[in-house]
Amino acid sequence: MGGVKKYVKTTLKIREDIFLKGKLLASTQGKTFSDILNDALEAYIKNHEEEIKQKLAEVMG
To answer: What is one Gene Ontology biological process annotated in the Swiss-Prot or TrEMBL record (predicted)?
Structure first.
């Protein structure tokens, strides 16, 4: 993504079971829950980058 990292603060609504599994995963890996969410989001964006760009282009006109 161009090598520039931007940090975005957001509020997410997630299911309780996903939250609990994420907390458990974080504790077993010695990470914070926020780190787990960031890793997951980064992987999603990487795997769907072209689709995201296309949808943004559609929205922008």
So the answer is: regulation of DNA-templated transcription
